[in-house]
Protein backbone atom coordinates (compact mmCIF):
# COMPACT_ATOMS: atom_id res chain seq x y z
CA UNK A 1 0.00 0.00 0.00
CA UNK A 2 2.95 2.31 0.56
CA UNK A 3 3.69 1.92 -3.14
CA UNK A 4 0.17 3.05 -4.02
CA UNK A 5 0.58 6.14 -1.84
CA UNK A 6 3.94 7.02 -3.37
CA UNK A 7 2.53 6.45 -6.87
CA UNK A 8 -0.25 8.94 -6.14
CA UNK A 9 2.25 11.46 -4.75
CA UNK A 10 4.45 11.05 -7.82
CA UNK A 11 1.66 12.52 -9.95
CA UNK A 12 0.88 15.52 -7.74
CA UNK A 13 0.91 16.81 -4.19
CA UNK A 14 -1.90 15.83 -1.79
CA UNK A 15 -2.97 16.91 1.65
CA UNK A 16 -3.03 14.22 4.31
CA UNK A 17 -6.85 14.01 4.49
CA UNK A 18 -7.19 13.83 0.71
CA UNK A 19 -4.50 11.14 0.42
CA UNK A 20 -6.12 9.17 3.24
CA UNK A 21 -9.51 9.31 1.49
CA UNK A 22 -8.00 8.20 -1.83
CA UNK A 23 -6.26 5.22 -0.25
CA UNK A 24 -9.39 4.26 1.70
CA UNK A 25 -11.43 4.43 -1.54
CA UNK A 26 -8.94 2.01 -3.11
CA UNK A 27 -9.94 -0.52 -0.43
CA UNK A 28 -7.01 -0.34 1.98
CA UNK A 29 -7.65 -0.85 5.69
CA UNK A 30 -8.01 2.29 7.82
CA UNK A 31 -5.22 1.29 10.22
CA UNK A 32 -2.77 0.59 7.39
CA UNK A 33 -3.67 3.86 5.65
CA UNK A 34 -3.17 5.79 8.88
CA UNK A 35 0.24 4.20 9.42
CA UNK A 36 1.43 4.90 5.87
CA UNK A 37 0.17 8.48 5.81
CA UNK A 38 1.75 9.14 9.23
CA UNK A 39 5.06 7.80 7.93
CA UNK A 40 4.82 9.99 4.82
CA UNK A 41 4.10 13.03 7.01
CA UNK A 42 7.05 12.20 9.24
CA UNK A 43 9.37 12.06 6.22
CA UNK A 44 7.74 15.26 4.83
CA UNK A 45 6.53 13.63 1.62
CA UNK A 46 3.11 14.87 2.72
CA UNK A 47 3.01 18.36 4.19
CA UNK A 48 -0.37 20.03 4.65
CA UNK A 49 1.14 23.52 5.00
CA UNK A 50 3.09 23.17 1.76
CA UNK A 51 0.06 21.73 0.00
CA UNK A 52 -2.20 24.57 1.20
CA UNK A 53 0.35 27.17 0.12
CA UNK A 54 0.73 25.69 -3.37
CA UNK A 55 -3.00 25.22 -3.80
CA UNK A 56 -3.66 28.80 -2.66
CA UNK A 57 -1.14 30.16 -5.18
CA UNK A 58 -2.58 28.02 -7.96
CA UNK A 59 -6.16 29.09 -7.30
CA UNK A 60 -5.19 32.75 -6.91
CA UNK A 61 -3.49 32.62 -10.32
CA UNK A 62 -6.78 31.32 -11.71
CA UNK A 63 -8.52 34.41 -10.33
CA UNK A 64 -10.09 33.01 -7.18
CA UNK A 65 -10.36 35.04 -3.99
CA UNK A 66 -9.60 34.08 -0.40
CA UNK A 67 -13.16 33.14 0.56
CA UNK A 68 -13.49 30.62 -2.25
CA UNK A 69 -9.99 29.26 -1.67
CA UNK A 70 -10.72 28.90 2.06
CA UNK A 71 -13.89 26.92 1.31
CA UNK A 72 -12.09 24.65 -1.17
CA UNK A 73 -9.23 23.94 1.23
CA UNK A 74 -11.68 23.22 4.04
CA UNK A 75 -13.48 20.76 1.75
CA UNK A 76 -10.15 19.02 1.17
CA UNK A 77 -9.91 18.38 4.92
CA UNK A 78 -7.15 20.82 5.81
CA UNK A 79 -6.88 22.29 9.30
CA UNK A 80 -8.18 25.84 9.79
CA UNK A 81 -4.84 27.15 11.08
CA UNK A 82 -3.04 25.77 8.02
CA UNK A 83 -5.63 27.41 5.76
CA UNK A 84 -5.34 30.74 7.58
CA UNK A 85 -1.55 30.71 7.23
CA UNK A 86 -1.71 29.88 3.51
CA UNK A 87 -4.21 32.64 2.76
CA UNK A 88 -2.33 35.24 4.82
CA UNK A 89 0.94 34.32 3.11
CA UNK A 90 1.93 37.54 1.38
CA UNK A 91 -0.83 37.99 -1.19
CA UNK A 92 -2.55 41.36 -1.56
CA UNK A 93 -6.15 40.23 -2.09
CA UNK A 94 -7.48 43.73 -2.86
CA UNK A 95 -4.93 44.04 -5.65
CA UNK A 96 -5.84 40.54 -6.81
CA UNK A 97 -9.52 41.54 -7.00
CA UNK A 98 -8.61 44.58 -9.14
CA UNK A 99 -6.53 42.41 -11.47
CA UNK A 100 -9.34 39.87 -11.85
CA UNK A 101 -11.85 42.66 -12.55
CA UNK A 102 -9.58 44.26 -15.14
CA UNK A 103 -8.86 40.92 -16.80
CA UNK A 104 -12.58 40.22 -17.15
CA UNK A 105 -14.06 43.70 -17.74
CA UNK A 106 -11.22 46.00 -18.83
CA UNK A 107 -9.52 49.01 -17.26
CA UNK A 108 -12.45 51.38 -17.09
CA UNK A 109 -14.37 51.54 -13.80
CA UNK A 110 -18.08 51.11 -14.55
CA UNK A 111 -20.17 54.27 -14.38
CA UNK A 112 -23.65 52.78 -14.03
CA UNK A 113 -24.91 51.19 -10.85
CA UNK A 114 -26.18 48.19 -12.78
CA UNK A 115 -22.74 47.46 -14.25
CA UNK A 116 -21.02 47.95 -10.87
CA UNK A 117 -23.47 45.49 -9.33
CA UNK A 118 -22.79 42.98 -12.11
CA UNK A 119 -19.04 43.23 -11.62
CA UNK A 120 -19.44 43.03 -7.84
CA UNK A 121 -21.46 39.81 -8.19
CA UNK A 122 -18.75 38.38 -10.43
CA UNK A 123 -16.05 39.15 -7.85
CA UNK A 124 -18.23 37.79 -5.06
CA UNK A 125 -18.68 34.55 -6.99
CA UNK A 126 -14.91 34.36 -7.41
CA UNK A 127 -14.52 34.51 -3.63
CA UNK A 128 -13.53 38.08 -2.82
CA UNK A 129 -14.76 39.85 0.31
CA UNK A 130 -16.81 43.05 0.34
CA UNK A 131 -13.70 45.09 1.19
CA UNK A 132 -11.79 43.62 -1.77
CA UNK A 133 -14.73 44.31 -4.08
CA UNK A 134 -15.00 47.92 -2.90
CA UNK A 135 -11.30 48.34 -3.52
CA UNK A 136 -11.62 46.93 -7.04
CA UNK A 137 -14.72 48.94 -8.00
CA UNK A 138 -14.32 52.14 -6.02
CA UNK A 139 -15.81 53.18 -2.73
CA UNK A 140 -19.31 53.93 -4.07
CA UNK A 141 -20.69 50.42 -3.94
CA UNK A 142 -22.45 48.56 -1.17
CA UNK A 143 -21.87 44.81 -1.07
CA UNK A 144 -24.24 42.73 1.02
CA UNK A 145 -22.93 39.44 2.45
CA UNK A 146 -26.07 37.67 1.20
CA UNK A 147 -24.83 38.03 -2.36
CA UNK A 148 -26.75 41.15 -3.34
CA UNK A 149 -24.82 44.16 -4.57
CA UNK A 150 -26.23 47.61 -4.77
CA UNK A 151 -24.69 50.61 -6.40
CA UNK A 152 -26.16 54.06 -6.65
CA UNK A 153 -27.29 55.02 -10.15
Strand order of the largest sheet: 1-2
Order of helices and strands: HHHHHHHHHEE
- Assigned CATH architecture of the largest domain: Orthogonal Bundle
* CATH T-level fold name of the largest domain: Arc Repressor Mutant, subunit A
Structure overview:
- The protein has 153 residues and is mostly helical.
- The chain has three domains: 2-42, no CATH class; 48-88, Arc Repressor Mutant, subunit A (Orthogonal Bundle); 93-150, Arc Repressor Mutant, subunit A (Orthogonal Bundle), CATH 1.10.10.
- Helix content is 66%, strand content 3%.
- The protein has helices at residues 2-11, 16-25, 30-42, 48-61, 66-75, 80-88, 93-105, 113-126, 130-137; strands at 142-143, 149-150.
- Strands 1-2 form a two-stranded antiparallel ribbon.
SSE arrangement:
Layout: H1 2-11, H2 16-25, H3 30-42, H4 48-61, H5 66-75, H6 80-88, H7 93-105, H8 113-126, H9 130-137, E1 142-143, E2 149-150
Helix pairs in contact: 2-3, 4-5, 4-6, 5-6, 7-9, 8-9
List keywords for this structure.
153 residues; mainly alpha; Arc Repressor Mutant, subunit A; 3 domains; two-stranded antiparallel sheet; 2 strands; 66% helix; elongated
Brief write-up:
With 153 residues, the protein is mainly α.
Amino acid sequence: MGIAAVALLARRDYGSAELTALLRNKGFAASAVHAVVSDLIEHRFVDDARYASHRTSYQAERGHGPLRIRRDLRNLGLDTSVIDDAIAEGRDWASQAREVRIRRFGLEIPASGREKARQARFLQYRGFSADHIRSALGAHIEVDVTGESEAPD
